[in-house]
Design a protein that fits this description.
The structure is a single chain. The protein has about 230 residues and is α/β, with parallel strands linked by helices. It has a single domain, classed as Rossmann fold, CATH 3.40.50. It contains 7 helices and 10 strands. The chain has helices at about 45-55, 75-85, 100-115, 120-130, 145-160, 175-190, 205-210, and strands at about 5-15, 20-30, 35-40, 60-65, 70, 85-90, 165-170, 195-200, 210-215, 220-225. It has a 6-stranded mixed sheet with strand order 6-7-8-3-9-10, with helices on both faces. Helix 3 packs parallel to helix 5. The longest helix has 16 residues, at about 175-190.
Amino acid sequence: MKEILKAENLHKYFHDPDEFHVTNNISLAVNESEFVTLIGKSGCGKSTLLYLLATLDTDYKGRIQINGTTVTGMTQNELARFRNEHIGFIFQFHFLLPEFTVLHNVMLPALKLNKLDIGTIENNAVDKLDQMGMKSYALKLASKLSSGQQQRVAIARALINTPSIIMADEPTGNLDSVNTGIIFDIFKNLAQQGNSIIAVTHDKDFAANSDRTIEMADGRIHQSINNQKPV
């Protein structure tokens, strides 16, 4: 199976107010179409690790490779373009622009990447919204949607540049059980379509139904659990 992401010997320190070794010699790999969840108690380093893997935090020791490209050592401008093209990131809070329509919010990363004409980008955005069950809301202002709807739009936005890997930090943290189930099903379908997914979660059921769960403790990987049932 093709390896999408590989991290080797990641060390991350916080220095204020005291030095704290937040990720301690972490190595891991994620394969194509794999749905991986990161779990552990608050402060264990799971969100910090996700931000390192997503290239949003570059102050670390070690090496990260995504899609065969070593991203460690890239400039901030190089990383910004690489992220926009290869990684879709979903935050706990959707971070949609409330004064823009749903459609415009989804189009923004593709407009920034500037690889396609506006008409093609708009058609792709409509397709992504349709995939999320949100096509009929395309011309509504983002501020007029419910939390669950806004998070689905945020996923559509993360998908607009057809990234090979989706990373999510507590994507269901602000949602009720019904919307949590909807988001989980979306992630499962995305993995089946070829996307790799890494999601930080406190939801044990959400984690247990992913392909693999990595449990962290004290800045280290405590165990890696294969959740896939034998056929």
